[in-house]
């Protein structure tokens, strides 16, 4: 019997275009057959570039950023672990630098995997490529190992899709005692002009304003508009509601940020004076970027011996 919805025959997998992954000494480049690409430096497992098929860069990296491992990379997606901001005194992280050690340690490239298109036209090739990076206690510098002597393993996965990028972290406690940590993805989004965007879905949410001595505030405006130095840590957000960076001209989404297991979100822009004081950031570059940073930073995650914890973000470009 002829089936009217008989599926078309599936092409031979070996002949399909595949994602390309190039391993350099200090970074990994990957691209999809459709032209999208991503670059990840081993230093900090920092994603430094995410381009759409049009070649349009989605992430901001300062022209003054250090890419030689002498300093955390100013831009892209630095990984913040196991502490966010200046470590508190009298805590196990107190001897670590600001934002911990993940962004200034060398990670190992663990390999790639890819998933095939689930659409009808499998001839288009693979829909995504996943790059996995690992960092464990044994890989830390002596200084960091001394400052935070827990046994841990991190696997950071970077997945490139056609219109989005997912970054996720799995933290494993490989020791025999619990430890506490914070985690955040310090995403620098590239925008045309800071004055032409607004950030939605934060209405009436409580945040800590780090520019005003950590004052706790609530903003009832329908969207966050950035017109001065901004360093706001939003807390306890509904994980199911994406954060939207929209054009203030036509309200079209420029980026939508989906969070998994990350209830806090920092919004940061250094503005004029702070930009001038940063040696690895151009004086006028604050206009081309906004940091939208999903994290778990308002309290400590406690991870028991041999336990694991996972979380992630997906950034979708455009609609
Ligand atoms: O200069 P960094 O150590 O990279 O930190 C850059 C920024 O990171 C976060 O967004 C913090 O909330 C800010 O307080 C900090 O200034």
Automatic annotation (TrEMBL):
Binding locations of substrate: 74, 98, 103
Family: Belongs to the glucose-6-phosphate 1-epimerase family.
InterPro entries: Aldose_1/G6P_1-epimerase, G6P_1-epimerase, Gal_mutarotase_sf_dom, GH-type_carb-bd
GO biological process annotation, one example: carbohydrate metabolic process
Catalysed transformations (reactions): alpha-D-glucose 6-phosphate = beta-D-glucose 6-phosphate
Database matches in Pfam families: Aldose_epim
Lineage: superkingdom: Eukaryota
GO molecular function, one term: carbohydrate binding
One CC-aspect GO term: cytoplasm
Protein name: Glucose-6-phosphate 1-epimerase
Catalytic residues as annotated in Swiss-Prot or TrEMBL: 186, 293
EC number, UniProt record: 5.1.3.15
């Amino acid at each position: 019997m002829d089936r009217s919805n008989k599926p078309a025959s599936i092409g031979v997998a070996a002949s399909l275009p595949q994602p390309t992954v190039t391993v350099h000494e200090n970074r990994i480049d990957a691209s999809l057959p459709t032209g999208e690409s991503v670059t990840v430096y081993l230093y900090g497992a920092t994603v430094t570039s995410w381009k759409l098929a049009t070649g349009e860069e989605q992430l901001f990296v300062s022209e003054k950023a250090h890419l030689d491992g002498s300093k955390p990379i100013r831009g892209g997606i630095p990984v913040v672990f196991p502490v966010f901001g200046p470590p508190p005194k009298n805590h196990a992280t107190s001897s670590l630098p600001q934002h911990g050690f993940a962004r200034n340690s060398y990670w190992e490239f663990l390999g790639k995997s890819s998933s095939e298109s689930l659409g009808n036209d499998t001839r288009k090739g693979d829909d995504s490529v996943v790059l996995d990076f690992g960092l464990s206690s044994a890989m830390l510098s002596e200084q960091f190992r001394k400052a935070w002597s827990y046994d841990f393993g991190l696997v950071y996965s970077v997945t490139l899709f056609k219109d989005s990028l997912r970054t996720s972290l799995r933290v494993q406690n490989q020791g025999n005692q619990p430890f506490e940590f914070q985690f955040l993805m310090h995403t620098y989004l590239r925008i045309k002009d800071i004055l032409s965007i607004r950030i939605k879905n934060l209405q009436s949410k409580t945040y800590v304003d780090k520019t005003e001595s950590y004052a706790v505030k609530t903003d009832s405006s329908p969207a966050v508009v950035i017109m001065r130095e901004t360093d706001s840590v939003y807390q306890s957000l509904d994980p199911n509601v994406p954060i939207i960076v929209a054009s203030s001209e036509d309200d079209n989404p420029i980026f939508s940020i989906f969070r998994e297991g990350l209830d806090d979100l920092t919004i940061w822009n250094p503005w004029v004076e702070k930009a001038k004081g940063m040696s690895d950031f151009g004086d006028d570059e604050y206009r081309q970027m906004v940091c939208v940073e999903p994290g778990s930073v308002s309290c400590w995650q406690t991870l028991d011996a041999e336990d694991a914890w996972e979380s992630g973000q997906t950034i979708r470009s455009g609609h």
